[in-house]
Amino acid sequence: MAERAVADTGLEMVRPARPATGGTWASVARFCRKKPLGAAGGALMLVIVVAALFVEPLSTHDPIATDASNTLARPGRDHWLGSDHLGRDIYSRIVHGSRVSLIVGVLSTLLGSVLGGLIGLLSAYFGGKTDLITQRFLDILQGLPLLVLALVMSAALGPAVHNVIIAISVPIIPRAARVIRSSVLSIREMQYIESARALGIRHLRIAFRHVLPNTMGPFIVLATAQLGSAILVEATLSFLGLGVPEPYPSWGRMLSVSAAEYAQKAPWLVLFPGVAISLAVFGSNLLGDALRDTLDPRLRGA
Amino acid sequence: MRLRLPAALLAIVGVALLAGPVLGQAQKGADTGKAPASTKGARAPHPNGKKGGILLAMHREDLAQGFSIHETATIATVWPSMPCFNNLVMFDPFKPVESLDTVIPDLAERWSWQDNYRNLVLFLRKNVKWHDGQPFTSKDVKYTFDMVRQAADAQTRLRINPRKDWYANVETIEAADPHTVIFHLKRPQPSLLMMLASGYSPVYPAHVPVAEFRSKCVGTGPFKLKEWRKGEYIEFTRNPDYWAPGRPYLDGIRYVIVKERGTRFAALQAGRLDISFPGEATKPIADQLKASGAKLNFTPVGTNVNDNLIMNIKKPPFDNVKVRRAISLAVDRRAYAKAVHQGGAVAGASMQPKPYGFWGLLEKDLARLPGYGKPEENKAEARKLLAEAGYGPQKRLQVEMGTRAIAIYVDFASFVINELKQVGIEATLKQVETAQWHPLVTRREYQMGANLTGLGIDDPDGNFYENFACGSPRNYTDYCDEQVMKMIDAQSQELDLKKRQPLVAQIQRKLEQDAARPIMGWRLDHFPMAPHVKNLVPHHNIYNYGRMQEVWLDK
C-alpha cells in the first residue's frame, strides 16, 4: 500500500543498500584480521568444542580404566601426557574432561544468562515497584561472591552434573539481570517503543518482540565472558570434591588431593589439566573481549 | 647371754633409727592422703631418659567426640586422648607386634585367670588418683565396663557404643574390694585381656558424667588436659602425681591440628612438628619426605586397618552370594595394592597379614581365595557367576557405590568401579561427607560401599564379634551365618593356641568365600618422627601406642 502510494507520486523508492559483507567466511576473516587475539580465543574454544564432540575417536584409552602396571607413567608413546597414580591415561581424561567442562560451562552460562536476562528485561520494562523489589533481591544475590554461592549450593544439592549446572548458573543470574536491565532502561525510552505503546500493542509483546532483540549484543558478550568463569568455577567445585563425581574425568578433580600428593614425583598429573583449564578460560575471555569490542558500537574500531 | 643382750638391744635401736624416718614418712603420707601409689609391674625409668620438653604431635582433625574414647571408632579421638587415661592392662609400648604375651600391667598391677579362664581377677594399684584428686578404685572399673557392655544395672549409658560386642561374653563385673575387680565370664575367653589392653579401653571415673568427656578429660594418665582450642590444638601437661616412678618424661604434649594433609607433612618436614599421625604417612608421602632430605626417622609398620567392600546383604542383588562372590572375584587384590597404595599395602584376608599381624593367612591359602589368583581367570568366573544370577550383556547389573569424600577412599572406589566394569557391572560413585558416612552405613542406607575398618586389637575376638557377628551394629553388611557364629565361639574359648590358629584360618577362608566383606588390602604406615624423639615405638596397630608415658626428647 505504502509502495503504491510512493509509485503514485512518481518518486522512486530507494531501498537502503546493505553493506557488502562478502558472506560468513569473509566476516570471519575480517574478524580474525581486526581481532587476532579474539580469533586466537575462538580457535582455542573451537579446539575444545571439537574435543568435546569427538571424545571417542580422539581418546587413546578408556579414561576410567586403571592399570596397575603403568602407574605414574611418564609422557611417552603409550601415554602421550603420562598416566596418573591409578594408571589412567591423562590425555584421554583431559579429552573426556573437555566434554564435562564445556557442557557444564555452556549450560550453566546459558541457564544463568537466560534467566537473568528475563528478570532484567521484565524488571526494567515494567519499572516501579516491580523493579525496586527485583533489584533488592538481586542485590542480595550479587552480594555473595560467585564461588561462595556456588559452593553452598553445590554442597547442599550434592555432587552431580545437573546440580553443578544449577549451582553455577544461580550466581550468574544477578549479573545477567543487571546488564540486560541497563540496556532495557535505555531501549524502553526509544521512540519506536513509545510508538508501539501508542498503537496499543501489549506490554509482553513489546518487551519480547521489540526490546529483547535489541539486547542481544550485550547478552552475547555477557554469555561469552561468563563462560570462562563458569568453566573455572566448575573446576574449582570439582577440585573441592563438589563437582562431577568420580570416576568420570573432570579437569578440576584431576588437580585434586591425590594429584597434589604425587605432584613432586609426577608433575604431569597437575601440569596438563592445569594447562587445559587455563587455555579454556583464556580462550573464552579473549573471545568475549573481542565480541564485546565488535558488538558494542561505542568500542567499534577502537 | 650377757654378751648377746647388749648386741640385741643395739640391733633393735639401729633398726628403729633406720626405720623411723621411713615409717614416719609413710605415716605422714597416709595422714595427708599422699601415700605413694603401688608401682608393682611398672617399668624402671630409662637410664638415659631426659626430662622436660613439649612434644609437638601431628593431628589431622578436631575431636568430634571430645575425649570420650568409648564413644568413638576413630583414631582421631584415640590418639590425642590416650595420654589422659590408663587402662587396666596395656600393650608393651616397646613391642610393635601385639599379642597376649605383650600385655603388661597398667592400673591392674597383676591379674589371675581362675576357673579355667572363666573369671579374670585383676588386682588394682593402690593410692592412684584421678586428675581431679579423687581416688581410683574398683568401682570406677565396674562403672566403666558395665557402661560399655550395657549391663542392665549400669549407672549410665553411652550415646554411641561401638564396642559393646567386645564384652558380650562378660556375665558380671564384681568389685570384690576397693582394689580387686573380677570379670565373670559366660565361657572361657583368654582374649578378654587383649581387648582390655586396647587404646579403645580406658577406665573412666565413676564420679564424672560421661557427657563431660566431650569437652574435658579426667583420667589417671600421665598427662592432664591443659587446653583444647578447637580447630587449633590440644595441649596436655605432665601429671605430677602420676603413679609410675619418674614418668612421664615430657613436660607436655601439643597436638597441632592441621586439616590439609600436604600442609601437615610440610610442617613435619620443616621441623614444626616432632611426630607424624598414625596411619597417615603412606608410601608416596614417605618417599617424598625421604627425597626432600628431611631429618626424619621412618618406621614401616602395619596399621591393622583394612580396605574392604561392604554390600548390603539384606537387599537384592547382594542377598545372592553368587553376585557377592562375582564382585569379590572381579577385584584383583595385588593390582589394588600396587595402584591405589603404590605398593604401600599388603594383601590379606580378614586378619592382618604376617609379619605385621599374628593371625593372617599364609600366602598359599590366600592364593586360593577370590581375587588373588590369575586376574583373567577370576574375571571369567565372575562373569559366569553373574550369568547364573541372571545378569549379562542384556541385563547389566547396576549398583551404586558409596564412599567418604576423601581422596584415598575415592581412589579406592574408582579402582573397584573399573574392575567391576570389566565383568559387566556398571557402578556409579556416590561420595558422602565423613560425618554422614557412619550413620548411613549403621542405618544400612547404602547398596555397596568402599570402606575402611580399623581393628582395635590383632585378635580374632576383637574383629569377628565386632564386624561379622550376627546382630552387631558394626557388622555393616548384616552378614549372618549360624555355622560361622559357632566357629567364632569355638575359637574364642579355645585355650590351646595351636588348635585356635587353624580355626581362625578356617573362618577367614569362609568369610572370603562368602564375600561377607571382601578385604581389598591392609594399609601400611611409615610413621616419620624427628630423630630427637626417643622411646616412641610405633606398633603394627594404630590404636595402641599413643600413651606417651615413656617418650622423651633428646634435645
Would you write up a description of this structure?
The complex is a heterodimer of chains A (302) and B (555). By secondary structure, chain A is mainly α. Chain A has one domain (48-64, 77-295): MetI-like (MetI-like fold, Orthogonal Bundle). Chain A is built from 14 helices and no strands. Chain B is an alpha+beta fold. Chain B has 2 domains: 7-22 and 31-40 and 50-217 and 533-553, Dipeptide-binding Protein, domain 1 (Alpha-Beta Complex); 303-524, Dipeptide-binding Protein, Domain 3 (Dipeptide-binding Protein, domain 3, Roll). Helix content of chain B is 30%, strand content 20%. Chain B is built from 15 helices and 20 strands. In chain B, helix 7 packs antiparallel against helix 10 (375-388) and helix 14 (482-492) packs antiparallel against helix 15 (497-513). The N and C termini of chain B lie far apart (64 Å). Residues 8-34 of chain B have low confidence and may be disordered. The chains are: A mainly alpha (302), B alpha+beta (555). At the A-B interface, helix 13 of A face helix 6, helix 8, helix 11 and strand 15 of B.
Radius of gyration of chain B, taken over Cα atoms and rounded to an integer in Å: 26 Å
Radius of gyration of chain A: 24 Å
User: For the terminal residues of chain B, how far apart are their CA atoms?
Assistant: 64 Å
Spell out the helices and strands of chain A N to C.
HHHHHHHHHHHHHH
**Helix amount of chain B, in percent?**
25-40%
What is the domain total for the residues of chain B?
A: 2
Adjacency order of strands in the biggest sheet of chain B:
13-17-12-16-14-15
Q: So, CATH architecture of the largest domain in chain B?
A: Roll
Q: How many strands of chain A? A: 0
Q: Indicate the CATH architecture of chain A.
A: Orthogonal Bundle
Sheet with the most strands of chain A? none
Question: DSSP helix count of chain A?
Answer: 14
* The number of domains of chain A: 1
CATH fold-level label of chain A: MetI-like fold
Shape of chain B: globular
Shape of chain A: elongated
The computed structural class of chain B is alpha+beta
